[in-house]
Write a structure and sequence with these properties.
single chain, Carbamate kinase, VC0802-like, 14 helices, 15 strands, 38% helix, globular, binds adenosine-5'-diphosphate, binds aspartic acid, binds magnesium ion
């Protein structure tokens, strides 16, 4: 029998009703043998995700303050689900162990991981599936990077022995066996790892939207759906803020050529979006998607003749490296260079970074500009279409958006633009109108 791996996100498992829907989806096809579960997410707007409750509760415990009430609220989220599903089970001894670990400062990653751990025990009971704790199987290396080889070595034989299982998402363990989580949204990565380990025919990622949309539905009203997208396009969009799927979730499945299908737990009849390695099918529009993020800063550097100074760029990057910083983009002119960095990473380091660049490069002028938003326009069909950039900039000019930076990847798969944060939404809507509404 072919095997499918299904992952349910936080909103798909936020309460008893959602768990029932997820269980129905799993039972509908016997191929859906391995289920990866998130912690309960928000049940309504303004609600708190269990993961956030755990972080906050643990921080209170770590400050040495009383965390009884915060912990009781977390227990109640799970007990409420168990009661409503009328399951014959109790998590009391688990709660006691976790509370004790909080009091003994077991670590923030351990604390956050307990949401997926407890929710998966409940879902396994509901489905009658085995529960497998990923702590012993999903491994990180000494530097904290996910280790696919060490993971496969342990996980493949474990899952071969198993008919059906529920596996908590979001975490694994370090070589010294302490719990380590992926970054936020990381249950998507666990789903991809499990799909790789069982060589699944498909990795179904069940969420609260019927697939990937051309733009963020919180910015554009009812954006159109994307039916097929390539891994590379998806990674560009996910990295730039299209939060449907974690940007690192594609690596384990791409390696094994396993497609991902984004599906809607609340509308299982919808086909969703298929993510594949390559597709002969050109997309319906010139672009495949638009995504963007606020919160970037630009370090502007000016120096006469910098383009003929051997090693200038290297010295600028060494200054960033010395301050343990990555950069996002580095567009340059003859005598100017702009380094785009994440504003959060720069906070508190501004002076140190400028001093270091000064010391290494002796520029004529330097300044830092904040409040920049980046927008990525992504599409495999852009390569063949003429005039894409022209249309993009005319749409932005029409909408009176000032473009502060432009960068086009050499693969011609994307064009990145930088705009003032206050123009962010206007810019995305203008690009959507130009490339989607006018191409209908
Ligand atoms: P889950 O809890 O299932 O992991 P997420 O909240 O991580 O779900 O991701 C789904 C959300 O991603 C949607 O509810 C939507 O608000 C948001 N989103 C952002 N960009 C897009 C996009 N381009 N297409 C669809 N959804 C998007
Ligand atoms: N529960 C974790 C988070 O909120 C992981 C996930 O949902 O994918 O980030
Ligand atoms: Mg998610």
């Amino acid at each position: 029998m072919e095997t499918k791996v299904v992952k349910f996100g936080g909103s798909s498992l936020a309460d008893a009703g959602q768990l029932r829907k997820a269980a129905d989806i799993v039972r509908a096809e016997p191929e859906r043998r391995f289920v990866v579960a998130s912690a309960p997410g928000k049940r309504f707007s303004g609600d708190m995700k269990v993961t956030d409750m755990l972080y906050s509760c643990y921080d209170t415990a770590a400050r040495g303050e009383s965390f009884d009430d915060a912990f009781a609220a977390i227990e109640e989220r799970f007990n409420g689900i168990i009661r409503e599903l009328e399951l014959d089970m109790s998590l009391e001894s688990e709660f006691a162990g976790i509370k004790n670990a909080f009091a003994h400062r077991a670590g923030r990653d351990y604390a956050a991981s307990r949401g997926e751990y407890l929710n998966s025990i409940i879902l396994a009971k509901l489905l009658g599936f085995e529960f497998i704790d990923p702590a012993g199987f999903i491994r990180f290396d000494e530097q904290g990077a996910f280790d696919l080889e060490a993971t496969r070595e342990r996980l493949v034989p474990r899952l071969e022995k198993c008919e059906n299982a529920v596996i908590p998402g979001f975490y694994g363990s370090m070589p010294n066996d302490t719990i380590k989580t992926f970054s936020r949204g990381g249950s998507d990565i666990t789903g991809s790892i499990v799909a790789n380990a069982v060589n699944a025919v498909i990795y179904e990622n069940w969420t609260d939207v019927s697939g990937f949309m051309i733009a963020d539905p919180r910015v554009v009203d009812h954006p159109r759906n994307i039916t097929t997208i390539t891994y590379r396009e998806l990674r560009e969009l996910a990295y730039m803020g299209a939060g449907v799927l974690h940007e690192d979730a594609i690596f384990p499945v791409r390696k094994a050529g396993i497609p991902i299908n984004i599906r809607n737990t609340n509308r299982p009849e919808d086909k969703g979006t298929l993510i594949v390695s390559d597709t002969a099918e050109t997309s319906r529009y010139t672009i495949t998607g638009i995504a963007g993020k606020k919160g970037f800063s630009v370090i502007q550097i000016e120096k006469d003749m910098m383009n003929s100074e051997v090693g200038f760029g290297k010295n600028v990057l060494r200054a960033l490296e010395k301050n343990n910083m990555c950069f996002e983009h580095m567009p340059s002119g003859i005598d100017t260079m702009s380094i785009i960095v994440n504003s959060d990473a720069l906070v508190g380091k501004e002076k140190a970074v400028l001093d270091e660049i000064n010391f290494r490069c002796h520029p004529d002028k330097m300044e830092i500009e904040n409040n920049l938003a980046l927008i990525a326009v992504v599409g495999r069909s852009m390569r063949k279409a003429r005039g894409t950039a022209g249309r993009l900039f005319s749409a932005l000019a029409h909408a009176r958006v000032n473009v502060k930076m432009i960068d086009q990847g050499s693969s011609e798969l994307n064009i990145i633009i930088g705009v003032e944060e206050e123009d962010f939404e206007t810019a995305i809507r203008a690009i959507y109108d130009m490339f989607v509404l006018t191409e209908c």
